[in-house]
Amino acid sequence: MSFAFGIGIGTQNNQGEWLEVFYQQPVMTPDNTLMDVISNALDYKGGNQAIAATAEQLSQLANALRQIGQTDQASLADKAAASKRPVVVTVLETDDTASSTPEVYLKLHLISHRMAKPHGLKLDGIFGLLPNLAWTSEGAIDLNELSDRQLQARLEGRTLEVKSVDKFPQMTDYVIPKGVRIADTARVRLGAYVGEGTTVMHEGFINFNAGTEGTSMIEGRISAGVMVGKGSDLGGGCSTMGTLSGGGNIIIAVGENCLIGANAGIGIPLGDRCKVEAGLYITAGTKVALLDDNNELVEVIKARDLANQTDLLFRRNSQTGAVECKTNKSAIELNEELHANN
Hints:
Structural class: alpha/beta
Number of helices: 5
Shape: elongated
Low-confidence stretches: 330-335
Distance between the termini: 35 Å
Number of strands: 27
Radius of gyration: 23 Å
């Protein structure tokens, strides 16, 4: 049994290099029967491959898929056979380091389709395989070809809008997961895992290989590698320190039913039912005064020693400025109506 498979409609530049790929129906762990069909129709010999497929090959693939009862994939192959854009069939025998742009896009799709969770796929080395592109009203364009495309649009009486210049596109141009609200779609990258019941407000941001388990209100930033548990809220302008922004090898995560206040931030993983006061940023080396039930000092430790602990309340003493930590016995209860997305 192989790792993943997808029929993709892509974009290439004038040199025939892949810029991006859209996989409408990726498949995780395709069975042996499906892989046998792919091997016969596309002369697939094993390993991880991105196969540029012709219309004739796709028609043959569609017929073979139909014979084994894979009607959805057969229909997709039929439609792809008539595509005006290049088609690629990507087969991943293993979750090994990607070696091509279509392979990277398939893995990012698997996460955004909720078929794999952040940290569940091998994504090292993907930046070198993702070209920096102009994401426009007419799709992805190689930056070296952008000026000519802009001129051509003007000559034809159109304006080519450049929405962003980035390696990653916005997720909603490829995948819209069930049961979510996203106020500003440009702030959620492809490769984000957005759990059902999640609301991402205008200032919220979710990077690739990061996301939410669901029923969360996101008004802050979820950095790459960070997963937020069910029922947790990120207040306006708050931040989570990802592995790409100084977190090192520490995997930052937020447990269930947590609250990170507005303009606050964390550089340690939080356990369940934790709260961080608005405006307070906690890094691994932050000195924290542990208080008992009578607000008496027990000891001063580094915040990293509290990583993954539950029922903690982090606050700053308004008189001394010291960062304090108390046990937070009251779980954060979310407004069910506010989080209803279906």
